[in-house]
Each structure stands twice: as structure tokens, then as C-alpha cells.
Known about the structure:
Layout: E1 2-9, E2 13-21, E3 29-31, E4 35-40, E5 43-48, E6 52-56, H1 61-70, E7 72-74, E8 77-80, E9 96-102, E10 105-111, E11 119-122, E12 124-128, E13 131-132, H2 135-140, E14 152-158, E15 164-171, H3 182-189, E16 194-200, E17 205-208, E18 211-214, E19 220-227, E20 232-233, E21 236-242, H4 264-279, E22 282-283, E23 285-289, H5 302-312, E24 316-323, E25 334-338, H6 344-361, E26 371-373, H7 377-381, E27 386-393, H8 400-403, H9 406-424, E28 427-428, H10 437-445, H11 460-469
Parallel strand pairs: 2-6, 21-23, 21-24, 24-27, 25-26
Antiparallel strand pairs: 1-15, 1-20, 2-19, 3-19, 4-5, 6-8, 6-11, 7-8, 9-10, 9-11, 12-13, 12-16, 14-15, 14-16, 17-18, 22-28, 25-27
Amino acid sequence: xxxxxxxxxxxxxxxxxxxxxxxxxxxxxxxxxxxxxxxxxxxxxxxxxxxxxxxxxxxxxxxxxxxxxxxxxxxxxxxxxxxxxxxxxxxxxxxxxxxxxxxxxxxxxxxxxxxxxxxxxxxxxxxxxxxxxxxxxxxxxxxxxxxxxxxxxxxxxxxxxxxxxxxxxxxxxxxxxxxxxxxxxxxxxxxxxxxxxxxxxxxxxxxxxxxxxxxxxxxxxxxxxxxxxxxxxxxxxxxxxxxxxxxxxxxxxxxxxxxxxxxxxxxxxxxxxxxxxxxxxxxxxxxxxxxxxxxxxxxxxxxxxxxxxxxxxxxxxxxxxxxxxxxxxxxxxxxxxxxxxxxxxxxxxxxxxxxxxxxxxxxxxxxxxxxxxxxxxxxxxxxxxxxxxxxxxxxxxxxxxxxxxxxxxxxxxxxxxxxxxxxxxxxxxxxxxxxxxxxxxxxxxxxxxxxxxxxxxxxxxxxxxxxxxxxxx
Length: 473
């Protein structure tokens, strides 16, 4: 499922009624609400469906005429209360899911009457209160019962903060993205609390960050969201820290199992470095390292780490550790922690990370509660969903040979990045992954491969060509 997301501070969010052909729309515009298309004296024009409070930005004669008949004007502001117009209006009388911007805050409400605010727009409920909406919730409001075909759609959503609106372009793959649950599943992974679906299909137009996505054509559009100065691309912010410092006493492998007494910081930092390297093959994220990642000489205080993550506005906090407490015995394995009072998102991060790590490393161990909770400082005080991973025991005769290996560090990093990519909505870059760059360049230079499609699968006929070029046939 293709997705575009732009974070728009409320101060930069606006809705305009433009009544323009789609191919006449400009920069930093996204098609918005549902509408009807009409003709009068040979002139085509559009009128909104559902609640709407917007800036009036058209001089169309008939749009103005019927706008005055159906709604009300307050200077350049236009308000259409769906409950006040019953003629051929299937939405009349329904409590419509409506995004409202008022006094510098955004919210989604269900309201029969047009809510008061600087801007308001109605749409089909997709996510409400952090839960997926059923199709029956949309039809109960009066929205059409026809299919929502696989295509691009505009949605608007909110996360926990109320001072920003997220404008979303989503390309569905099912005939009804609400009924199938595909939209909610994708958007809940990205941390959305409330999402409503606006128009799409032949109306879809999304211009932001210098890139335009459109379904083509010149269909007339009623309203657009304008993305004004101060908006930000929705980069997923990852706060990552290797636990402890290189010189902290006692945190090392048991000498009888590891004569070098490898320090915990070395194991932690090695995996964090690999995570950082693997992430470079993706776009759509920002990374903040919360440790002294050069040499570990300084053990950065927990309060300093948490404050940095909170002030930065992290979307996810991950702390990497290795465990102890078996004293030379067997067993141990990976343990993942969230806080006892964590929200649903942190628990989901914890569980998904644990399962992926076990799948890719096999270090399951024998802990009674490997997906656990603990009142640890970083878990208690970080605003974002936070997880602390203990990636094996440094005093376990079964764990130590595993956790010292480079292969284990690679597998841990790969598992963690795979989860971050899925839950954070990261996108793979067009080129080869960072670990394959050198080999890819050599293969291309030698003429074994043609330098295209680095991440595609190899067909049998292509394999035959490669083998022939290598002289192996």
C-alpha cells in the first residue's frame, strides 16, 4: 500500500473552496472534501457534501449563488451546515465525523450540526480513538454504500498531539479500504488516533514537498487543503541508545565464559551501529543517537537521554542492553520490556520486536515472561512509546557464545530494522541496501549484472544469463 503523509501544524492548515478543474490546481494543494457536480446555463460547478467551514476562493457565479442558498458567508469564510439542507442530501440528519480546527487545536468529533471553528470538514470514519472503524459506522452516518475502489484517497488524521493535522495520500488495494481494514491497519501502525477519509479516485491530487501525485484527468474539484509555510514532512523520529558506558563497572561478560570480559557497552553499541547503518537504505525517518556513540567513554545520564528524546519529539524510543543474572548457568535469551502503564502502542512495539528477534536470531531462552514490564526510568519518563531490549545474558554459558558473534549482532539489527520499517512507514531507497553496495558495484562493473532493479527477484532465465557471464555453464 503506497502512502504519502505530511504533518501540517495547525497554524499552517487551511481549507479553500476553489471549484477548479484538477489540472488547474497549484503547488502545496491536496484535494479535500466530497462534493456534487452540477450544470446551470451550460456552466459546470461544484457544491460541497457534508459539513464544511473554509475560505472562499472562487468567483464562480453559480457556486456563489447556491452557496448563499445552502450555507452562509462571514466575509471570506464560508460555512455549510449539512443539517440545514435536506433536499437530495443523504447526509442530512446524520452525526458526521468532522475534523475541526479551533483556537489553535484540531479535533475529530461526530456532530449533527456544523461544529464551530476556523475550519471544518466531514469524511468517512476510518480510525477513531485509536481503533479501526467498521463500515457500518460510515453507512450509519449516511455515506454511500457503494464500493470504494482500489485507487488513491485523501485522508486527514490526528496523533496524540492536537496542534498538528496530518494530510495523508493512501493508495488502497481492496474494493473498500474501510470494510477490509487495510487503511486502519496501516494508519494505526503509524500512530494515528483519529482518521477520516475525504475524496479520492478521479479527484485525487496531492502536491507537497515539491512532488505531485495525481490520478490524472481534469475533473472539477470543490475544496482543497492548502499546505502553508511551516509544514513538515512526516519523518518518523527514532531515538536510539546503547545502554550504559564503556567504563561502567561490572557490566561485562563473565570471565569464565569470555576471557576478554567483553563489556556490555561494546555489545550494545555494536548493534546500535548496525541498526543505524541498515536504516540508511530507507527514507522517511530521522535518527537521534542518545549515547556517546564514538567510544562510550561517557555514560550519558538517563535523564539527559530522556529529555533529549522528549524535546526532539521522538516517535519511538529504543534502548539496547544485554542482561545478567544467571551466574554461569544455562538459559537466558532475549527479554523485551515496556512500562506497566504503557499505552497500546508501546506494548505492540515490544511484542513485535521480541517476536521478530526470536524469528531471526533463535535466542529464545527460558525466561518465564520474555515480553515483560518494568518501572525503568527511560520507559517511565519517555513521552513516545518506549521499549528496552535485553539481547541475551552475559553470564549464560548458552548465550555468551551467541551474543559475541558478529552474525548475532547482524541478525538483531536486521530484525529491529524490519520492525521499525513496518511500524514507522519507512520506504526503501531505489538503490541496493547498504550492506550490498560494494558487491553490487563490483557485479555491475564486471558485467555480471546490468545495474538495474537491485531489489527485484531473479528469474530462472536471468539466473542462466548470470551463470553464463560467470563462465559456469
